[in-house]
Amino acid sequence: METKTLQANPLLISEDLRHIVTALRSGQVAALPTETVYGLAADLYNESAILEIFRVKGRPADNPLIAHIGALSELQKLISEPSDLFYQLAKCFWPGPLTLIGQRASGVPDCVTAGLPTIAVRMPSHPAMLQILKQTGALAAPSANLSGRPSPTSAADVLEDFNGQIPLVVDGGSSSFGIESTVLSLVGPKPVILRPGVISREMIEAFLGISIEVAGSGSPVLSPGMQYRHYAPKAKIHLLNSAEELSLFKERGAYIPETLTAQNLYAELRQADRLEKGEIAILLNRKMRSDEALMNRLEKASR
Ligand code: TXA
Ligand code: MG
Fold first, then answer.
1. Does 101 reside within a domain?
2. How far does residue 15's CA lie from ligand 2's centre (Å)?
3. E strands present in 19-60
4. What's residue 216's pLDDT?
5. Is the omega angle on the peptide bond into residue 191 within 30 degrees of 0, that is, cis?
6. In a mutational test of the pocket of ligand 1, which residue from 183, 185, 230 has the highest number of ligand atoms less than 8 Å from its CB?
7. Distance from C-alpha of 103 to C-alpha of 164, rounded to nearest angstrom
8. pLDDT tens for residues 43-82?
9. In terms of domains, do 61 and 174 share one?
10. How far does the centroid of ligand 1 lie from the alpha carbon of residue 104, in Å?
11. Same structural domain for residues 195 and 156?
């Protein structure tokens, strides 16, 4: 199969928009830009299209997908009785990098939520993604990488994993945040962050006026995706505390990113693999340590 790339700068021209919407409506999968990372999307209500996402990614069937919507009116079909809190958070942070988990509505196919009684939903803010979502309705989309690889933050990253394997990629430029959305569960007695992300714990706490937990490695697996080795390049990652250690790795020819932020993390991990480096050495500083999302991904990638 030939993978066709459509350009969005940042919007799609009407002919390309028609093309991508028709493809998605007819059950094809396509890689689409979001403000966090690229997603591998398909019609949420088309079971065979959803199964194709799992097949192409090599994703375990017990790892649920995020529903992406372009309008709040889509929520009723996905969430059974969204709470007031759900709407308040959605109105404050959408469109944007916050994923909210609620009880799923009856029309949602089992394969999307991996059989869970809950569903994850977000409204992304990339203009081309919103253009598409407004015409297709809800799309299910995990990050557009082979399972276990670093998430893609450009169309070139997507092609590295999927060229010839999927029919369409929409190139919407480099992802502005470069790291996945924050996943916040609203199904328990208190909101819990299942995956730290761009919207920080502090931002959510400031909005809610209460302190909230980030589900840690000690607690039961709440977000199935967090149990797998993740976000990992082929190279082995070493997290370092001193300049002395760093110079040892430099001598050994390890890949050493100049500056590392959540925004360029995945791009750097992929670059190390392109250069066929066996090792990546990262000197942690205070700023990095205080970034919960960055540290979460680094710890998972270096396991
Ligand atoms: O920024 C993002 O969220 C990107 C872009 C494409 O939107 N998407 C993304 O999807 O990162 P994915 O599939 O790579 O990660 C989804 C995470 C996984 O850890 C999954 O287990 C969790 O969300 N998740 C999905 N549905 C869930 C549910 N019902 N309960 C708990 N965790 C859920
Ligand atoms: Mg992912």
1. yes
2. 30
3. 30-32, 39-43
4. 75
5. no
6. 183
7. 37
8. 999 999 999 999 999 999 999 999 999 999 999 999 999 9
9. yes
10. 15
11. yes
- Look up the CATH number of the domain holding residue 184: 3.90.870.10
Spacing, Cα 27 to ligand 2 middle (Å): 21
Comparing C-alpha atoms, which of 224, 242, 232, 241 is closest to residue 265?
232
Q: Are residues 116 and 254 in the same domain?
A: no
Same domain, 209 and 261: no
Q: What is the dihedral of CA 42, 47, 51, 56, to 10 degrees?
A: -30
Does residue 250 share a domain with residue 143? no
* Protein residue with its CA nearest to atom 15 in ligand 1: 142
120 lines ligand 1 (CB under 6 A): yes
Q: State the DSSP code for 231.
A: S
**Is residue 246 included in any domain, yes or no?**
yes
Cis before 95? omega within 30: yes
Number of domains in the chain: 2
> Which of 93, 223, 297 for a ligand 1 pocket mutation test, highest count of atoms within 8 Å of Cβ?
223
Q: Are 233 and 301 in contact (CB under 8 A)?
A: yes
Question: If you measure from the C-alpha of residue 139 to the centroid of ligand 2, how many angstroms do you get, rounded to a whole number?
Answer: 15
* Distance from the alpha carbon of residue 184 to the mean position of ligand 1, in angstroms: 10
Measured CA to CA, the distance from residue 161 to residue 164 in angstroms comes to 9
Tabulate helix, strand, coil % of the chain (nearest 5): 35, 20, 45
Same domain, 153 and 293: no
Pick from 36, 37, 64: nearest CA to 50: 64
Specify the ligand 1 atom closest to the Cα of 179: 1
Bridge partners (DSSP) of residue 214 are: 193
Question: Is residue 169 domain-resident?
Answer: yes
Summarised one tens digit per residue, pLDDT across range 260-294 is 999 999 999 999 999 999 999 999 999 999 999 99
Residue 15 lies in domain: 4-214
Task: Specify whether 43 is located in the same domain as 166.
Answer: yes
178 close to ligand 1 (CB < 6 Angstrom): no
pTM: 0.96
